Amino acid sequence: MLDPSSSPSASPSATNILRRFANVHKCPVGALTLRLHRGDWRRWTGTHYAVMEDDALRAEVYDFLSKVNYEKFDPEPKHVNAVLDGVKVTCSPTCPRL
Q1: 40-61: per-residue pLDDT in tens?
Q2: CA distances to 9, 34, 46, 62, 85 from 6, in Å
Q3: Would 1 be classed as within a structural domain?
Q4: What is the number of structural domains in the chain?
Q5: Is residue 69 included in any domain, yes or no?
Q6: Cα distances (Å, whole numbers) of residue 88 to 69, 70, 74
Q7: Strand order of the sheet with strand 49-52?
Q8: 22 touches 98 (CB < 8 A)
Q9: Containing structural domain, residue 78
């Protein structure tokens, strides 16, 4: 099982950002509301996991990153891709809790 903090390229700040993003996608009982299932992103609606378009998630990551540092950070595609790579690991059904 992959641990995003064990990656040689993952700095503590990158891991912290990933945890913050994942925490945004938790319901009050701590379960993730964003999942990657059979290659599709799915978001919890309250009754089921509905398919979420890749572009919608990418836009959400851009927005999240732009606000991470009080809107003083202009995310580039490489930053978004790094978060999405980590999210793929943390939002898979076999992922341990963050």
Answers
A1: 999 888 899 899 999 999 999 9
A2: 9, 22, 33, 24, 14
A3: no
A4: 1
A5: yes
A6: 23, 25, 22
A7: 34-37, 40-44, 49-52
A8: yes
A9: 9-90
Distance of CA 22 to the CA centre of its chain: 5
Q: Identity (one letter) of the amino acid at 49?
A: Y
CA distances from 80 to 31, 38, 97 (A): 23, 21, 22
User: Alpha-carbon distance 74 to 22, whole Å?
Assistant: 20
Amino acid 95 reads C
- Who's near 34: CB < 8 A, 6+ residues apart? 22, 25, 41, 42, 43, 44, 52, 57, 87, 91
DSSP annotation of 4 = G
4 belongs to a structural domain? no
Residue 96: inside a domain: no
Confidence of residue 4 (pLDDT cuts 50, 70, 90): very low
SS (HEC) of 33-75:
CEEEECCEEEEECCCCEEEECHHHHHHHHHHHHHHHCCCCCCC
